[in-house]
């Protein structure tokens, strides 16, 4: 798929999906809590410069800016950049350093200018390996030696687990989507149903780290973001109860590196160092 095609798909999909509120609902709250925790595990102390490429509506970028970091957000979706600027304006003491429309494959930043890069979106939206490698090489270029990269992938098995747990396994339209996912990780949604996401690539955990290595990174960790926690029956009830929420987070931490469990996570996080 060409660059323009893939960007067009992304823009069309997010014109309907509300990315600004996604992380505050259902099991995405677990995704957010765990992503924050995995970022903080290696992040150098503030002030440091972070590029959030594919930063969406700025949920992580604004959180990091509020902790004293200089955060630059890039996203191809104008609506997201406007939402990120509006969220930044709500924290006048700690605004984003910048929020611009752009593409993770062509960052506007100088070589070695950043302490950390987040790629929490582009690596699954880019369906071609060469595009993903271009994006990883750009992250490598803008990082200073020793700088860190966080890259999120969607699991190769996410559609299978999602459809079984959330009740659409028997939708005939989903059956052909699932076949493609399990065949080669190439997720295509020819239906108008936004719940079935948009064109994407679903990684096996080992593939994500091989792509990091191919772009010149040292792979520090490959971790389950949600582990099996996103599959919890009655997730909202568990999450609302502070004690059960802590138990759930502790259980996910306990299995975050377990190779036999990585593929059961909705997302996998690779952490690399230049
Ligand atoms: C599911 S959202 C995730 C947003 C945020 N990073 C998060 O983790 O919640 C995926 C984001 O990746 C962005 N994206 C897709 N392709 C991209 C590309 N080639 N370069 C930069 N961002 C891209 C989308 O516009 C979208 O904002």
Residue runs with pLDDT of under 50 for 5 or more positions: none
* Ions and ligands: S-adenosylmethionine
Helix content: 40-55%
Radius of gyration: 18 Å
Overall morphology = globular
H-E string = HHHEHEHEEHHEHHEEHEHHHE
How would you describe the overall organization of this protein?
This protein has helices at residues 3-16, 19-22, 28-42, 59-66, 78-89, 122-125, 129-142, 158-166, 172-184, 205-214, 235-240, 242-254, 259-262; strands spanning 49-53, 70-75, 98-101, 114-119, 143-155, 186-187, 200-203, 218-224, 267-273. By secondary structure, it is an alpha/beta fold. Strands 1, 2, 3, 4, 5, 6, 7, 8 and 9 form a nine-stranded mixed β-sheet that branches. Helix 4 links the parallel strand 1 (49-53) and strand 2 (70-75). It binds S-adenosylmethionine. S-adenosylmethionine is lined by residues 10, 14, 19, 23, 53-56, 59, 74-77, 80, 103-105, 120-122, 125-126. Residues 10, 14, 19, 23, 53-56, 59, 74-77, 80, 103-105, 120-122, 125-126 line the site of S-adenosylmethionine.
Task: Kindly list the characteristics that best describe this protein.
274 residues; binds S-adenosylmethionine; single chain; 13 helices; globular; alpha/beta
Task: Briefly summarize what is shown.
Helices cover 46% and strands 20% of the residues.
Topology:
Layout: H1 3-16, H2 19-22, H3 28-42, E1 49-53, H4 59-66, E2 70-75, H5 78-89, E3 98-101, E4 114-119, H6 122-125, H7 129-142, E5 143-155, H8 158-166, H9 172-184, E6 186-187, E7 200-203, H10 205-214, E8 218-224, H11 235-240, H12 242-254, H13 259-262, E9 267-273
Parallel strand pairs: 1-2, 1-4, 2-3, 4-5, 5-7
Antiparallel strand pairs: 5-9, 6-7, 8-9
This protein binds S-adenosylmethionine (SAM).
